[in-house]
Write a structure and sequence with these properties.
The complex is a heterodimer of chains A (608) and B (336).
Chain A: E1 5-8, E2 10-18, H1 23-36, E3 40-46, E4 61-69, E5 79-84, H2 87-93, E6 97-106, H3 112-117, H4 124-131, E7 133-137, H5 139-146, H6 154-158, H7 161-173, H8 178-187, H9 192-211, E8 217-220, E9 229-234, H10 235-250, E10 254-258, H11 265-272, E11 280-283, H12 287-299, E12 303-308, H13 310-326, E13 330-336, H14 353-358, E14 368-370, H15 376-391, E15 394-400, H16 401-405, E16 407-411, E17 457-459, H17 474-490, E18 501-502, E19 508-513, H18 517-529, E20 535-539, E21 541-543, H19 549-554, E22 558-563, H20 568-576, E23 583-586, H21 595-607
Helix pairs in contact in A: 1-7, 5-9, 7-9, 8-9, 10-11, 10-15, 12-13, 18-21
Chain B: H1 25-38, E1 46-50, E2 65-68, H2 74-84, E3 89-95, H3 96-100, H4 104-113, E4 118-123, H5 158-164, E5 169-174, H6 178-190, E6 195-200, H7 212-215, H8 220-223, E7 224-227, E8 234-235, E9 241-246, E10 249-254, H9 276-283, E11 291-298, H10 304-318, H11 324-328, E12 333-335
Parallel strand pairs in B: 1-2, 1-3, 3-4, 4-6, 5-6, 7-11
Antiparallel strand pairs in B: 5-11, 8-9, 9-10
Chain lengths: 608, 336
């Protein structure tokens, strides 16, 4: 009897288990191998906020989902294969497995106690067997068996059962174990016994799957044909690299002042690790310290940035106003998460848009842009730096937990191809320096300590137009307020027009912003296959909006705004362009849209 | 590089100075302008930053690069400027409210990190700019607009707070003592590390005479102990009083009485790593003791800004990644 081979264009795999089971490691290992096999891939980790949540419970399940094959825009809605290291992992994901999909479960963990903790009832297992293909694999005991002569402690042995599971999955897709073996050789360079043990267990899983006839085997269709050199990258790393790239392009030193916060910490970690590129990171004592140190560094002539998430942005508000009134370049990255307050620290949401646009005292305009895929976080971080430096303003870059932790294959750019950035330093032979004298784009010049002859004072008090001295003159305040506003509006002349994808001739425009790009694109594509053709615009530039925005909106009878909040972008558009009517598709569950969510909602709206 | 010669006038900006007539801040401004004119930096290499409060207007009055920040955050502006460009001589202007209340957290972390900046901590024991509320250095029981029946909180002792946070440099001076203040500023500029200089400053409007017991002409020689490194701790109108160590405590003695000679008097060692004596000196309060002034502690150590630069140099030498293209192409990549 030969194995059943399942042919697919693309496939969704999810690893799930207790949050201490090493799920994220198996997931990233599988992702890297998948990418190295030339597949398009997108991933999404999903883990509890607690570092070690109660074992064996549904609340403590950590997951890692990846989607690979061709035309990959999202980490996938429902999975074809779920690897579950305990019963709770099945319970937590049961609604997200395709009917008829494969569940590979560690049957050794199916004790009465664990089943009860996971909320299994007497007939649950039977029902699962009816709806899905359940493969009961003795992962724990076989891991133990594989390492029984290793001399390792049982606790250490059990920690490698994730590798047994990974070995099984490699076999299902016909992928080699080599890349992960190399990974262990590198990771445990100084502990060869651990490298050996992990590799042995990985191989054990692989061989077990090969031997078991019940295991299906998958053949996934050919990968992308866009030529080039690729790598895998997450949104947070791409953000950090975008800032580093802008610093290198301009010849400025990068200074990042930040305070650790989920899900943004990785940006601080990545830049802290880039001293080889001369980057300076300053882990401040709090969020305010992060941004104020960055403002100090900006005053001193560095490319300065601070990274945070929603609650941290709230703490930075006052200082962000200081950057607005002093008109210093600064990039503020807000990796959004579920709110308000501490909210859902590890989950995704787009609910900081209002905060980004208006969360400060006074008339305090700040340009806002948003990345829309994990890899284009690089592009938009670079763009945030470009706007900050060329327009002498703080810029807010919005990403979110989904982009930050998600990864995708990325065609590696070359530095020489990146757009030039022109800094606004005053010419060293200028005769005088008037801090608030502006060019035709209302941008002031930058003079930094160490530049001879341009000593000047700035600060949080209102400035006299042109001279920058302190001024309480009423009409001056109004004038400066308008100048700051117009300066930000003028940035619209230096950003691309909004493009419309899908079928621009449709009567209906689907509109999104930021990280929902992948899910909306997939939904539009699938709806087209069903005969519903729609126009689609995904906004990356929020403040100011692209100049052709009104022109785009005017073309459509129906405008449906999809976002992961209660309608903040829709409300913003209503304020800016009240002449059009906007319908909304919203979700606030701490989760990304699914393609199915969007399709269903759009169909409903089209019927009305 | 040849540095220019300056006079204090070169450091005066054109802005009208807007402190109340008689404010102690005027003298401190004059002292810093004098100190800078005597120091060996180019004018463009000074950065004067501040938070919020009366004293924080200071940068506007200096003809240097200056940044008037937001309340409590001067320490971070100073740290950011210094870390971004360690060549600069950075002066942070702050008050007892700015540094020890709203900015208390930043203050202790700045001291702990030992960023090489000079901090002028104006202590008038009151909130002046908001018109007379008590501050974290107001005396227990002090009656102010927000403590009409007297405060019920124990004040901070800035010196002990600094040392508690791992401070390497602490000096104390008085607003109108230009001579000593200038010398302290100049020493602090050369000192590698966070230099905290507490300046007893008189707020003529809301807390006039707060320091008068210490500063009154009649009694000041008996009530001020100016310490000098390597010199015995002698004070008093007749220069006949001194400090000795009695067990684990300090004690005031009279030279020539009870067999005490100058040889028995404690000799000040500002470079002593151990904080015991420095702390004890800072704890001295009237009327049992005189209050201590001068440079109490100056113990150099590596600074944050130096260590960070050293790390960068070391890692640059070792790393295989020397530019963005290297980084972009590092790790696992594949060709399609």
């Amino acid at each position: 009897m030969s194995k059943k081979v399942i042919d697919l264009d693309n496939v969704v795999v999810k690893f799930a288990g207790d949050s201490g089971d090493g799920i994220q490691l198996s997931g990233t290992q599988f992702t890297n191998t998948t990418a190295l096999m030339g597949e398009e891939v997108a991933t999404f980790p999903d883990y509890p906020a607690e570092i070690r949540a109660p074992q064996g419970t549904v609340g403590g399940v950590s997951g890692f989902q990846l989607h690979f094959g061709k035309n990959i825009h999202t980490p996938g809605d429902k999975c074809d294969v779920l690897v579950a290291l305990n019963p709770a992992a099945i319970m937590a994901n049961i609604k997200m497995i395709k009917r008829g999909g494969t569940i590979i479960a560690d049957i050794d963990t199916f004790s009465e106690k664990n089943l009860e903790k996971a909320g299994f009832e007497e007939d649950t297992l039977d029902k699962i067997k009816q709806d899905y293909k359940l493969i009961e694999a003795p992962i724990s005991s076989m891991t133990q068996e594989t390492l029984k002569e290793s001399g390792l402690d049982i606790k250490v042995i059990m920690k490698s059962k994730n590798m047994f599971a990974l070995g099984i999955v490699y076999n299902l897709f016909g992928f080699p174990t080599k890349h992960s073996e190399d990974f262990f050789d590198e990771k445990f360079k100084n502990k060869p016994e651990l490298a050996k043990a992990n590799k042995k267990v990985l191989k054990g899983g692989f061989n077990y799957a090969a031997a078991i006839q019940a295991m299906p085997s998958f053949r996934v269709h050919a990968p992308t044909d866009l030529k080039g050199k690729y790598r895998n990258i997450s949104g947070n790393v791409a953000t950090a690299w975008g800032l580093l790239a802008a610093a290198e392009k301009t010849g400025l030193k990068l200074f990042l002042g930040s305070y650790p916060i989920t899900p943004a910490s990785e940006i601080l970690m990545e830049i802290s690790n880039r001293k080889d590129l001369g980057a300076k990171s300053f882990q401040a004592e709090d969020e305010i310290g992060g941004i104020v140190s960055a403002i100090g560094a900006s005053f001193a002539g560095n490319l300065a940035a601070t990274s945070t998430s929603g609650p941290g942005l709230a703490l930075k508000s006052e200082a962000l106003g200081l950057a607005v009134i002093t008109e210093l370049p600064l990039v503020v990255v807000n990796v959004q998460r579920g709110g308000p307050s501490t909210g859902l620290p590890t989950k995704t949401e787009q609910s900081d848009l209002f905060q980004a646009l208006a969360g400060r005292n006074g008339e305090s305009p700040v340009p806002v842009i948003a990345a829309s895929t994990p890899s284009n976080c690089f592009e938009y971080a670079y763009e945030a730096a470009r706007i900050a430096l060329e327009h002498m303003t703080p810029v807010l870059l919005l990403t979110d937990s989904y982009l930050a932790n998600g990864t995708e294959a990325w065609r590696i750019p070359q530095m020489k191809d990146l757009q030039n950035i022109s800094t606004k330093f005053i010419n060293s032979d200028a005769e005088e320096y008037l801090p608030y004298e502006r060019d035709e784009n209302l941008v002031r010049k930058w003079a930094v300590p160490g530049m001879k002859g341009f000593e000047h004072r700035i600060g949080g008090l209102e400035k006299m137009d042109i001279t920058g001295t302190v001024s309480y003159v009423p009409v001056n305040h109004e004038k400066m307020t308008e100048l700051r506003e117009n300066k930000v509006e003028k940035i619209a002349d230096f950003i691309p027009d909004q493009i419309v994808e899908g079928n621009p001739e449709s009567e209906t425009l689907i509109l999104g912003w930021g990280s929902t790009y992948g899910h909306i694109t997939s939904a539009i594509t699938e709806l087209k296959d069903e005969g519903i053709e729609l126009a689609f615009a995904q906004f990356n530039y929020i403040m100011p909006l692209p100049k052709n925005t009104s022109e785009v909106l005017a073309k459509y009878k129906k405008i449906i705004v999809c976002e992961l909040n209660r309608g903040q972008f829709a409300a913003y558009l209503r304020m800016k362009f009240p002449e059009y009517k906007y319908e909304q598709v919203n979700k606030v569950q701490g989760l990304p849209f699914t393609v199915a969510d969007i399709k269903t909602s759009i169909k409903q709206k089209l019927e009305n | 590089m040849e540095t220019q010669k300056y006079t204090p006038k070169d450091f005066k900006s054109g802005q009208d100075v807007r402190w109340c007539p008689g404010c102690g801040d005027f003298m401190v401004l004059a002292s810093l302008q004098k100190a800078m004119s005597e120091l060996n930096h180019n004018k463009e290499d000074y950065a004067v930053v501040s938070g919020i409060g009366c004293s924080s207007r200071f940068p506007y009055y200096m003809n240097t690069y200056g940044f008037h920040g937001i309340h409590g955050r001067a320490a971070l502006l100073a740290s950011g400027v210094k870390v971004a460009n360690p060549k600069l001589s950075v002066w942070q202007i702050t008050g007892d409210g700015d540094a020890l209340a709203i900015g208390g957290n930043h203050f202790i972390h700045e001291v702990r990190r030992n960023v090489n900046v000079n901090v002028l901590l104006f202590n008038n024991q009151i909130y002046g700019l908001t018109k007379g509320q008590y501050s974290p250095t107001s005396l227990m029981g002090q009656k102010t607009k927000t403590s009409p029946h007297g405060t019920v909180e124990v004040p901070f002792n800035p010196g002990q707070l600094t040392i508690g946070a791992g401070g390497r440099f602490f000096a104390r001076t008085i607003d109108n003592n230009v001579k000593e203040t200038v010398e302290i500023f100049k020493y602090a500029d050369g000192f590698k590390g966070t230099s905290i200089i507490e300046i007893l400053q008189n707020c003529v409007i809301f807390n006039n005479g707060a320091h008068s017991a210490i500063t009154d002409k009649e009694t000041r020689e008996d009530n001020q102990l100016w310490v000098e490194h390597g010199k015995p701790m002698i004070f008093g109108k007749e220069q006949n009083k001194g400090i000795i160590l009695d067990g684990v405590k300090l004690k005031v003695v009279e030279i020539g009485k009870n067999g005490i000679s100058e040889n028995n008097i404690l000799v000040h060692d500002m470079h002593e790593e151990d904080t015991t004596i420095h702390n004890a000196l800072l704890k001295m309060k009237l009327p049992e003791f005189p209050e201590v002034f001068g440079i109490i502690r100056a113990v150099e150590d590596e600074t944050y800004d130096d260590l960070l630069d050293k790390q960068i140099v070391g890692i640059k030498q070792k790393s295989k990644i020397s530019c963005m293209d290297d980084l972009l192409n590092s790790g696992s990549t594949w060709e399609v």
